[in-house]
């Protein structure tokens, strides 16, 4: 087991809403778990060899457990099905220590939290942290229907319930989430956080940017992506800066796959360009960015990329490997 990994037991598995389960994880030996901050996630090694990222959705002040929420996605690549169908109470899992690519900006004077579906997991953790700190915030939670709304009762019983508005796709028009109105007037000191399905997040981010929100006041985390090949994908070469070795990347293989065949392993996790695990420095060449991790400004620098899904616009990429 990786020294940075943790062995945990599934203490409780609870059906939170239609197709959504929560898993309460505790240290197998009863020790406190490493501290985490709102927005953190852990990598979970699943039966069958898959690894998936799940956001922690319990109070960061708790050290005796981690709580994760998992949607059984009909378009699953196997991860959510394994969690729902194979993982049971009492099972032991190997997870990573918490990592946070989606932290709260503590300088914010007001926080606007937007959650879509299972994207509520990190957003709920943020709301609880902000409430404990007495910070100014509001939360909007959009789901397909009431029966698919995880943590509805938990939020309703919380001290910050008045700060939360629910929006159901199958509800009346008056309660629908009106993004243009909500995001129309960005204010200095107000920070926007969004997590949810790609379509929801794309809509929020496009609306915010069109309304003039500064990039430094927008925070987001994609938790899944459809990695698709393009008809005009071609082959290119990658040179390893340390050895000078050149590896050809065929049009039907990712950089990670081709390098692995050549004996060069890059640590990966999501393989969808959302988690940042495989980020690699680019020393020469122009990447074809296909990730959902970097901001547009970070992508434009072309000094790093995600080899799990991104490719190259130039015939050669020189990588810091």
From TrEMBL:
Lineage of producing organism: Bacteria, Pseudomonadati, Pseudomonadota, Betaproteobacteria, Burkholderiales
Claim: Iron-sulfur is one of the keywords in the record: yes
Entry-linked SUPFAM superfamilies: 2Fe-2S ferredoxin-like, Ferredoxin reductase-like, C-terminal NADP-linked domain, Riboflavin synthase domain-like
Residues annotated as domain 2Fe-2S ferredoxin-type? 236-321
State whether keyword Iron applies. Answer: yes
Q: Which cofactor does it need?
A: FMN
Pfam annotation, one family: DmmA-like_N
- Cited Gene3D superfamilies: 3.10.20.30, Nucleotide-binding domain of ferredoxin-NADP reductase (FNR) module (3.40.50.80), Translation factors (2.40.30.10)
Domain FAD-binding FR-type stretches: 3-105
Protein name (database record): PDR/VanB family oxidoreductase
Arranged from A to Z, the UniProt key words for this protein are: 2Fe-2S, Flavoprotein, FMN, Iron, Iron-sulfur, Metal-binding, Oxidoreductase
